[in-house]
Amino acid sequence: MSGARSRRATASLATGAWAERAALVALALKGYRPLARRYGGKGGEIDLIAQRGRTIIFVEVKARASEADAASAITAEKIRLVNRRIRDWRARNPWAEGCTLRADAVFIGRGAWPRHVANIFPVEML
């Protein structure tokens, strides 16, 4: 059983890494430049942080069998954890004061081009 579980975990990590690269390409084509990948760690992680002009986006990347499944993977708990990491990032990056901060998502369904969705949930500023 543990062998099957570790194979699934390895496949999931590989899919996640591929999805993040695909999201980076899609965002780069829109003029965003990456600032960080997998920011955070235990207790929540932001998949990508990117910037275009004075806008900084904190991006959740979700790859599932369908885009609808990908969108449903952003739960209330995930939003809470991501907002915690955004606050942490802001505290460590005072240069970003005055920038527009946004929580976005990139959804990837099987065989589909990544779809970037802006303002997927509110960024808590406190």
Would you write up a description of this structure?
It is a single chain. The protein has a 5-stranded mixed beta sheet with strand order 1-2-3-4-5. Helices cover 40% and strands 36% of the residues. It has a single domain, classed as 3-Layer(aba) Sandwich (Trna Endonuclease, Chain: A, domain 1), CATH 3.40.1350. With 126 residues, it is an alpha+beta fold. It is globular. The chain has 3 helices and 5 strands; from the N terminus they run αβββααββ.
Provide the fold topology:
Blueprint: H1 2-29, E1 33-41, E2 44-52, E3 55-64, H2 67-72, H3 76-92, E4 100-109, E5 115-121
Parallel strand pairs: 3-4
Antiparallel strand pairs: 1-2, 2-3, 4-5
Question: What key phrases describe this protein's structure?
Answer:
single chain; 126 residues; alpha+beta; Trna Endonuclease, Chain: A, domain 1; 5-stranded mixed sheet; globular
Q: Work out the helicity level.
A: 40-55%
Strand count, sense and closure of the main sheet? 5 strands, mixed
Annotated CATH topology: Trna Endonuclease, Chain: A, domain 1
Strand order of the largest sheet: 1-2-3-4-5
What characteristic shape results from the CA principal axes?
globular
- The tally of structural domains comes to 1
- Encode the helix/strand succession as letters: HEEEHHEE
Query: How much β-strand is present in the residues?
Result: 35-45%
